[in-house]
Amino acid sequence: MKDFPEFLRFNIETPVNNAVNWLLLTFGGFFDIVKDCVLWLLMQIEGFLIWLPWWLIIAVVIYLGWRATGRLRFGLIMGALMLIIGCFGLWDRAMQTVAIVTGAVFISLALGIPLGIWMAWNNNVESCLRPLLDAMQTMPSFVYLIPAMMFFSLGKVPALFATTIYAIPPIIRLTNLGVRQVPEDVVEAGRAFGSTRLQILFKIQMPLAMPSIMSGVNQTTMMALAMVVLASMIGAQGLGEPVLIGLQRVNIGQGFEAGLSIVILAIIIDRILQGFGQKRQTVEPSA
How does pLDDT run across 61-102, given as a tens digit for each residue? Predict the structure, then answer.
């Protein structure tokens, strides 16, 4: 009586494997083309970042920090933090990580912002997508590696797609929230002056929703960076790889250096994006 009844047991392993095999046999060529194109783009971004002089990247970080907050001291602190990564000897790995995060965030924004706008415009779409987004945000992050590996094997490409799936929900949710929170009387005023739906979107709703959208960009970027260590398990390289190697070999120092470098990158990106978001939020009301 204490054992689970045998007649109630079932598994979905066989139908899932059959479905995956059918997709690979039917659309294998398409997946190969997507993999080659995305891999080429990733390698171009990564190669460009590694080719740039280290001091130039630090200078850009200082400039962005200064522009984001209006304080040169803040920019110098961000530059000093970036310098620490180079002192650890992890500069190239950091650029590999930035390349993957950049690609994942770009895809997330390209897909997430239009989906968020669609949700704001259509309550039925929101009702359908909300449970899916809830599932995506509560699902263990390891699970995202499985579908990416199924279709793209190992390497940077499945890591990019797994990171994108993990990181896209915040930008969809906050774009939807930002557009919905635009005062209805402002939208009605735009309609009264004869504005089209697209004009209302780009000239009224999007500017007023920008603080919320910027928060979504920030959260999406942080979640993409959080997948770095897990993505290294399927060959993404970057800063996650020495963390993984440090854990496997019980090399605490190596893992700590790489982990601290990931934290530094997260702090730099988070503070700069927050600075630009707050700056825009203060500019909008005065405009």
Answer: 999 999 888 888 999 999 999 999 999 888 999 998 898 888
pLDDT tens-digit profile of 50-63? 999 999 999 999 99
Pick from 106, 128, 108, 126: which is nearest to 117 by CA?
126
Query: Which tokens hold the place of 78?
Result: 């961000």
Give the Cα-Cα-Cα angle 279, 280, 285 (nearest 5 degrees). 110
C-alpha dihedral sign at 128, 102, 221, 276: negative
Other CB atoms within 10 A of residue 281 CB: 14
Contact in structure between 133 and 126 (CB atoms under 8 Å)? no
Name the token pair of 180: 């919905």
The domains of the chain, with CATH numbers, are 19-286 (1.10.3720.10)
- Token pair recorded at residue 236: 């993404």
Dist. CA 175–CA 186, nearest whole Å: 18
Among 93, 111, 233, 234, CA closest to 165:
111
Tokens of 131: 């449970």
CB-count burial class (<10 Å; 0-12, 13-18, 19+) for 254: middle
Whether the CA torsion 188, 192, 196, 201 is positive or negative: it is negative
Tally of CA atoms within 13 A in the half-sphere of 163 that contains its CB: 37
* Residue that the structure tokens 């706008």 belong to: 117
Q: Is the pLDDT of residue 285 over 70?
A: no
Give the closest residue to 92 by CA, choosing from 132, 52, 41: 52
| AA letter at 71 | R
As a whole number of angstroms, the distance between CA 112 and CA 86 comes to: 33
